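Q: Could you fold this chain for me?
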Amino acid sequence: MLLITLLASLGAAVAVPIQYNAIYHSPAALHAPIPVPVAVPNSYPRYAFNYGVKDPHTGDIKSQQEERDGDVVKGSYSLVEPDGSTRTVSYTADDHNGFNAVVHKTGHAVHPVPVQVAPIHYASAIGVSPYGLH
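A: Sure. Below is the predicted structure, expressed as structure tokens.
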């Protein structure tokens, strides 16, 4: 809302609130009716989607699918865990049962084998220099 100051004939400043109408780029009086959004009745919700990612460079492998029919949602997603196994989650949701998910793991976890490093042995500081024995 813009505030425009009008100078009265006596030289006094009078503040008059003005509403700016961006569509016509012209000011409109504050008392003009302001459009109110009308509620549109919800239609029957229904959708289905799926997507997937398979990036061999980063190892990012995942997918998801979901569908909704009214107030019932069913879907699943899967991803390859850092240990190489695959986690798959199947889920449903509705007004009567709430949200329910079942998790399945497939494949074997592969953990990296720690590298054994040979211990470093230091010679006694007496009589030893970087150039040999003295």
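A (continued): The longest strand covers residues 46-55.
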